[in-house]
Amino acid sequence: MTTPQKELLPGTRRALLHRIAVAQAEGRAPSLVAAVVRGGRTVWHGARTSVDGHGPDENTQYRIGSITKTFTAVLVLRLRDEGLLDLGDPLEKHLPATGAGEATIAELLAHTGGLAAESPAPWWERTPGSLRPGLADVLGEQPFRHPAGRRFHYSNPGYTLLGALVEKVRGASWEEVLRAEVLEPLGLERTSAQPQAPHAGGWAVHPWADVLLPEPTEDLGRMAPAGQLWSTTGDLARFASFLTHGDDRVLTAQTVREMRMPAAPAEAADVVDGLTYGLGLQIQSWDGRLLVGHSGSLPGFLANLTVSVEDDVAAVVLANCTSGPPLFLVGADLVRIVAEAEPRIPEPWRPMSDVDVSVLDLAGPWYWGTHAFALRLSADGAVALEPLSGGGRRSRFRANSDGTWTGLEGYYAGETLRAVRRPDGRVSHLDLGSFVFTRRPYDETAPVPGGVDPAGWRGIG
């Protein structure tokens, strides 16, 4: 029996090292560390540093900026899964008198709440959080820039509100809840709100000279849920595995899959770039792959976490400079290098253990008008309906207890698929949201909308 390679091949490891070496040198980063995850485990770690001697390793903390938002989103979805709130609830229902309560929880998670991108001056990332002690100080007198729900507009204050929501519902600080409900269950012992040695120092690199300036390290106070955390490549590698597979102690696989689904309308430029946003996760189509994760930055630090769920490969890249190496491109390249050099080995095909004969009878070709589709069965009881050739609407459907199926994706998400039978029990057609699928194109024995010409098919002579 063939088993997946547990360790990366030497050529792959050298290609990964070469990529981060180029990034560190061309980006002029004081240090850069990276890790790759495959199949749920860390399979590679690399580091480059401008300091001779011992370099940073997988336990060295860097500030991760807005990757913090993904952690905050996990806490909010835990509240939803426990039935303590609904994502469609307006914030006002659970956190009144903020002045921004008309935005829903889902809109805040997806940055479609219409709130400002930043808090009022002075710039919150480089000044003490004590300057903004209350939510009113974070939101300002006019918190909205757009109507709620109309467009994607990245908002740091929006995630401050989500952190305050967590505190209100749990009755404890955001940091305490995060520690108890996410960090400890996942074993993220080197992720914290305050730096813990060993940690990197944050630097600004002069744009026109190879000299450095230390950046201040501020406690962000109320803004912490938007960008406070420090972490390591070791911890973020474990977090990337969680975002791929889920962990029932924190969030189920189904809920993390929901986080990875697009939840925000894309701007025209974003459509061209293949960009959108889920629930606390950035989503991008890049070089033929769908990548999810998050980037982060604070003065002195850059961070990126990138996951290709289909390849089951993830990358984490951290650097201690205000600007420099494009870490999303580095992370995407690390994923690509592994996925292309050592493609994922699929699980062996195995026949189904049991099958419902009445469902098996539905398998095979169906026609919507003259469009040919195939209905296929899968071992988990689901079915898939997809075009036999070319593009077109396709979806998987989960089985319901009443013999129908509900669409899980695409155009048919949430729609009901049912097999309509004749009085003698034979299948007449499939009904999918009023669409009639028949065994033959425009089957005259089925209730095709608009009827079928009684003269039938003909040529032109």
Strand content: 15-25%
Structural class: alpha+beta
Radius of gyration: 26 Å
Strand order of the largest sheet: 12-13-14-15-16-17-18-19
Poorly predicted ranges? none
* Helix content range: 25-40%
From the spread of the alpha carbons, the general shape counts as globular
The averaged pLDDT comes out at: 94
Through-space gap between termini: 61 Å
Number of helices: 12
Number of strands: 19
Characterize the main sheet: 8 strands, antiparallel
Descriptive tags:
seven-stranded antiparallel β-sheet; globular; eight-stranded antiparallel β-sheet; 461 residues; alpha+beta
Question: In words, what does this structure look like?
Answer:
This protein has 12 helices and 19 strands. It is an alpha+beta fold and 461 residues long. Strands 12-13-14-15-16-17-18-19 form an 8-stranded antiparallel sheet, with no helix packed on it. Strands 2-1-11-10-9-8-7 form a 7-stranded antiparallel sheet, with helices on both faces. Strand 9 and strand 10 (301-308) form a beta hairpin. Helix 1 (10-27) packs antiparallel against helix 11 (327-341), helix 2 packs parallel to helix 5 (156-170) and helix 2 crosses helix 6 (174-186). It is globular and about 85 Å long. The model has no long low-confidence stretch (mean pLDDT 94).
